[in-house]
Design brief:
Shape: globular
Radius of gyration: 29 Å
Number of strands: 27
Amino acid sequence: MIPKPPYSQYACPQGNPLTCNAVSEKGSCSVCHFPGILSPKTKINGQHQYEMVAFLGQRGNGRLYEATNLSDQSSCVLKEYVLPQQTFNFEQIFKRREAFTQRSGIRLADGRAQNFRLVMPLEAIVPSLSSPERYFLVYGGEQTDTISLRQFLENKSPLSVASIRNILSQILQSLEFMHQQQFRWISGQVQSGLLHGNLNLDSVLVAEQNPGLLVYLCDFYFWESLFTSPLDPQCRPAIAQDLQAVGEIAQYLTAASKDPQQPLGETSMERQFRSDFPPADQQFIQRLTGESDPPFETSEQARQVLLSLPPIPKSEILSSSVTAQESRPTRPCWWMGWVFAYLFIGSVGIGWLYLRNQTKHSLSTENISCCIDQVANVPIGPVQFLAEKQGTWDFLYTQPHLLKRNTTLQRELIQAQALLQSWEYQPISISQDSIANQPGAHGQRVITLLNGQTANFIITNHTDDIDPSFGVKPFAYNGIAVFVAFGYAQRENSLPRRLKGKITLDQLRRLYTGQIKNWQELGGPNRPVKVYFPDQDGLLRIFERQVLVDDSSIAAFRKLVATRGRIPIHKPNQKCVGSFCGFASTTLQLRAVIEDFEDRDSFSIGFDELNKVINQCSVYPLALAEKGKATVSPLRLNNHRPVTPATDLCNSKASYSVNAQALQNQTYPLTFSLNVVYPRDNRRQPAGQTFANILKTQETQCWLQQIGLAPYRKISVKSACRAKSKKKP
């Protein structure tokens, strides 16, 4: 559990200044000088402007306010966190500030919109570095209809066994969802499973329905821990901790005498179950808390045991004051207990199906338009946006013939939305040399460009070091394809066949740092290794971050690919240092790999952007494997079977495509996103947000899929792309 922040540097008469509700005109408490609560009419600027209505009180490590979204006059709830400078130094504030924004947005990695009663914010608001004390998460106004489980117990205790089982089942169901799914943060990073880490009577919310209850989880560890005093010890959350916390909550629900104000876990051994509480339920709760063996290993296991507990006695069901509706008296029958048990289990199942399709608290709240001309609020101009010269977007946006003959993606977008004609696109250079060995330098370069007031936004593949004061909206996925010459499967020295069509990231790391010099070391023929790479700064940076990883490997690679290498007179677009060669274009690199195999009986390996390699059937993109994980190919046959070295890539071009699912959920190791990065500044035109919305329309997503990218989200009907293209002149 996360301890309550003591803020011991502040002499608060109440012991915790977050509980103080005094409003000070100076912005801080007149007694202890802790940042005070905000007064009504105070305005907070984020993606929208919010006006405070009333202070609602403390919850967890923050303070809650009722507020109004001034853009549409809708109600909302703001949770305010504080990083006071007397508790946190500048370095601690900076790190927490960055982490707060990176963790502010999360959704399912595969793009689905599912609701398992997790309370997620609509947006996060980060203060400027000049005044870095107050941080806000914005929630929908429906949060005013919920109360904490602590408040609920104060008015509804004692609960029936049926109500307790219902509450525990919903908590475990939400945890099962968190623990088992893959999520993607707003930064683009994918994480397998999330832990709550902060379950207690305040982080479980209850909404009374007719009939029954809905139970929500909020105030997760990954937010709350950022605002805990640096002097307090923090333990890394674990599944066992989440389950134990559920057990401690259950003990409060079932104890014969309890004080909801008492902290969880402090006197759990002293509590006694009510005399009417079934022994099987008691044992179940003791397994949750770890007081009885065997303890549960997963939330799924715990919930299955809960649902299989013996039916609730009929007397207990008939006396239920929470979940049962009032009805006229009937004569009890022996089968009533079984009927209500089945009804309970069935209601949980129906509730799960219902909640699955709701979007009220969905992890994904974006409303994506079908077509470009449906996107509203397109600025007339002038608008200038940037992308890295010779990078992914520069190629896709300006290269002719990718979508159709004699046109570009830029022209297609302008044809669909005439207002884009006044927008100016400018490719820029962000040299690899200028950011070498300088953490955060790439992000600083982006900040400098956008803060110059000339450019409205930038499209980039790199968001890991972007300042949190900038918005980041991914709109598609690409990958790095690692390839060798294809040949044909029956040829004796066919390298794809000898490598079994795959390579590990560790083998790739050793190849590109000069540790592997002969293909025999990987099971290939007795031939020296030639190592090729694109002379493209942005892609090299992704390769370094995702393949080479550590500083020593990156340094070894940079030494081998140094620009001081010999430049052949007859090949001005090729730079070589020994067997390591960089190429100015994908075409030149592919040609060199093929010529090595066909004309020189030698074997080379190269890498480049997947969308540039997908239709080049003379090379074979190898499947990749991370340590301890399954091998994943960047290509997939249309019948969902994997591409193998026996697949005829040249004669079967229409039978395979980019493995979009592997890129969308980032199980393909060398995936990267394309992102629109823009300043969070309401004084400037919202061109970045609008262009991201244009790029996320189904119409544009179809185009991006046609030119070799994986769509940001699954396109539900393939025929929709074909139907839309037929309508265009």
